[in-house]
Specification:
This is SAM-dependent methyltransferase. With about 240 residues, the protein is α/β, with parallel strands linked by helices. Helices cover about 35% and strands about 25% of the residues. It has one domain: Rossmann fold (3-Layer(aba) Sandwich). The relative contact order is 0.18.
């Protein structure tokens, strides 16, 4: 087995559970948004009696914020992907991709990298003056990585900051904070690229190592010559009030 094949085999063997990215240590780096999302969630939790994390994944970020805030209120999360639900690290997890809660049920709703945001439903379940805080995937995130697999893509037409603002306001929410940042990612071997694409499924929908083997080989050759493959993520922070 050559180096390329060995790296792909290693990537294919990595579990996909949760959002723990410790496996990437030494193989990739990702610049983090300056606002510190987990810390912001912890700050908001200190003032919340009833909080919900939407699409919590493995719950790592929410659990960190809960512990940092010493939160003791009603703490709920939703997660639709059943392999993750049983291991989510939060007190109460509802296995759903919807928001099956009563009107005004929560005074804080948070969501990190949601696949989609149900704006009207989010507004409905917020109590009066309740807060929605979310770190969203922005327009054209990791475009370099997507195009390395798919070829040239048209300009992104969704998830621009002002589109996110408009969607929130259309649901009746008052936007009190909106920020966007472009963040550098460096991948130091093709195993890191392949595992990232397996894990972060929206980058190349339908990605499999076998299907994109030739494209991955081109990335491997680039890393061999340049020492890394560079891409850029976009993140949008929105805070809105009911």
């Amino acid at each position: 087995m050559n180096d390329f094949d060995a790296l792909l085999a290693e990537a294919a063997a990595v579990p996909l559970d949760g959002w723990d990215f410790a496996w990437f240590e030494g193989r990739a780096t990702e610049q983090r948004p300056s606002w510190g999302y987990a810390g912001l969630v912890a700050e908001r939790l200190t003032h919340a009696a009833r909080a919900l994390d939407v699409q919590t994944g493995g719950g790592e970020v929410y659990a960190y914020a809960i512990n940092k805030a010493h939160a003791t209120g009603t703490l709920v999360a939703t997660e639709a992907w059943m392999p993750v639900t049983a291991r989510t690290r939060v007190p109460h997890v509802v296995a759903t991709d919807g928001l099956p809660f009563r009107d005004g049920a929560f005074d804080l709703v948070v969501s990190r990298h949601p696949v989609n945001t149900r704006w009207a439903e989010t507004a409905r379940i917020l109590s009066p003056r309740g807060v929605f805080l979310s770190q969203q995937i922005g327009a054209g995130s990791n475009r370099e990585l997507s195009e390395a697999m798919l070829g040239p893509l048209p300009p992104p037409d969704r998830q621009h900051p002002e589109q996110i603002r408009a969607a929130a306001e259309a649901a009746g929410l008052e936007v009190v904070r909106l920020e966007a940042e472009r963040l550098r990612l460096e991948f130091y071997d093709v195993a890191a690229v392949a595992h990232f694409l397996r894990k972060v499924v929206w980058t190349v929908p339908g990605f499999t190592i076998g299907k994109y083997r030739d494209r991955l080989r081109a990335v491997h050759e680039q890393i061999t010559v340049k020492g890394m493959f560079v891409s850029h993520a976009t993140r949008v922070l929105i805070e809105a009030r009911a």
